[in-house]
Amino acid sequence: NPIQKKSTSRRAGEIDCGCLAEDRFSRIRHLGVVTMKILIKIAVLTAISLCLFNLVNSQSSKNARSQGQQSLSEKVQQLLDMNTKRPVLRFNGNKFRDFVKSAPRNYSIVVMFTAMAPARQCVICRHAHDEYTIVANSYRYSQTYSNKLFFAMVDFDEGSDVFQMLRLNTAPVFIHFPAKGKPKPADTMDIQRVGVSAEVIGKWIQERTDIQIRIFRPPNYSATVAILMLSLFVGGFLYLRRNNLDFLYNKQMWALIAVVFCFAMVSGQMWNHIRSPPFVHKSQNGGIAYIHGSSQGQLVIETYIVMFLNAMIVLGMVLLTEAGWQNDHRKSKVTAIVGLFLVVVFFSLILSIFRSKAQGYPYSFLFK
C-alpha cells in the first residue's frame, strides 16, 4: 500500500533525527565534563603555584633578613676587634665605605679627616689628633663604653677619594655620622669657633649622641717641674742677695712686672688656657692663618701678636711722655717722632686686625 509505505518512511526519518539529536547532546555533555575537569585542574595547579611562590618568597626574605643581621653583627664585631688594638680606627676609602656609608648600621661613628704627612704642612693636625686621641681613650676605658659609638680617622694620603666624596678641601674636620639618617650641618664641628681641645670635642659628641665622656688626660709633670725650678731659682737668688734686698723696693721693676702681666691678660692668655685653641690653622685658600677669622675665637700665635702690638703702643706712649721732660730739644724731638710713629703704625695694625675679626666694623686708620 503506497500510504503505508509513506508513513513507514516518515517514522524511520523521525527515528534517525532523534538518534542524531541524542548523539549531539551526549557529545556536548561529554565536552562540558571534560572542560570542567580541565578548569578544575588549572585552578588546582594555580593555587598550588601561588602557595609555592609565597613560600619561596617568604623564605628568601627571611634568608635576606638573616644575612643582613649577620652582616651587621660581623661589622660590629670587626669594629670591636679593631678598637681593642687602637682607640682611633684608621680608615681608607674602602673601609670608610664599608663601615660608615654602607648599610646596615646601628652605631654612630665620629670621623676625623686630617692630613698628618709632613709634606702637607698641617700644623694644627698633629695637635688636633692628640686631643682627639685623648677623647677616644677616655671613652674606650670608661664605664659608658659600648658598641654604639666608635672613633675613626681618615688621612688625606690614605683616602683622598673620601675627601672628594664629601667635598672637603681643608683639614682637620670632625664629622659625626649618626646611626640613622644622613649627617646634618650640626654634625660637623666648628673648630674655628670652639677650638680642638679634648673637652670641647667631648662636649660636642655629647650634644650629638647623648653619650657623656669624662675626659682623662695623661699626667703632665712639665708645669710642676717648671714651677719647682722657678721656685729654686728665686729662692737661690734671694739667698745669694740676702744681704742686699733693696731691689725688692725698686718701683720700676714692679711696674714692668705689672705691665707684662696686663699684656698677657689683655692679649687673651687666660682664654687660651681655658679653651686650648690651636697655635695656627689653615685658611680657606690652603695657606697658614695667624689671625682667627671670627670674633668668637682666637689662635695662640694671635695672642702673641696682639701682645706685641700693645707693647709697641705703650712704648710709643711712654716715649711721647718722656719727650716732654727732656731738656735737650733735639733729643726730645727725636723721641717724640719715634713715639708718635710707634703709636700711629701699631695702633693702625691692631685696628686692622680688629676690623678683620669683627665683620662690618667701619673704621680704619692706615691699614685696612
What is the topology?
Blueprint: H1 2-85, E1 89-91, H2 93-101, E2 108-114, H3 123-140, E3 149-155, H4 160-166, E4 173-177, H5 191-194, H6 198-209, H7 222-240, H8 251-267, H9 269-275, E5 281-282, E6 288-289, H10 300-323, H11 329-357
Parallel strand pairs: 1-3, 2-3
Antiparallel strand pairs: 2-4, 5-6
Overview of this structure, please?
By secondary structure, the chain is an alpha/beta fold. Among the domains are: 72-209, Glutaredoxin (3-Layer(aba) Sandwich); 249-357, no CATH class. It is built from 11 helices and 6 strands. The strands form 2 sheets. It has a 4-stranded mixed sheet with strand order 1-3-2-4, with helices on both faces. α3 (123-140) packs across α6 (198-209), α8 (251-267) crosses α10 and α10 packs antiparallel against α11. It is elongated and about 155 Å long. The termini are far apart. The model is unreliable at 2-10 and 64-70 (pLDDT under 50).
Give a concise summary.
Among the domains are: 72-209, Glutaredoxin (3-Layer(aba) Sandwich); 249-357, no CATH class. It has eleven helices and six strands.
Key traits:
368 residues, alpha/beta, Glutaredoxin, 4-stranded mixed sheet, two-stranded antiparallel ribbon, 6 strands, disordered N terminus
The name of the CATH architecture of one domain is 3-Layer(aba) Sandwich
Q: Cα-atom Rg, whole angstroms?
A: 44 Å
Reported for the largest beta sheet, the result is: 4 strands, mixed
Q: Give the CA-CA distance, first to last residue.
A: 146 Å
Instruction: Tell me the structural class.
Output: alpha/beta
By CATH, the superfamily of one domain comes out as Glutaredoxin
CATH topology of one domain: Glutaredoxin
Strand tally is 6
Q: How are the strands of the largest sheet arranged? A: 1-3-2-4
**Parts with pLDDT < 50 across at least 5 consecutive residues:** 2-10, 64-70
**Helix proportion range:** 55-70%
Mean pLDDT: 80
**Per DSSP, what share of the residues sits in E-state strands of 2 or more residues?**
5-15%
The CATH class of one domain, by name, is Alpha Beta
Describe the global form.
elongated
| Sequence of secondary-structure elements | HEHEHEHEHHHHHEEHH
Organism: Anopheles dirus
Subcellular location: Endoplasmic reticulum membrane
Main location: endoplasmic reticulum
Keywords: Disulfide bond, Endoplasmic reticulum, Magnesium, Membrane, Signal, Transmembrane, Transmembrane helix, Transport
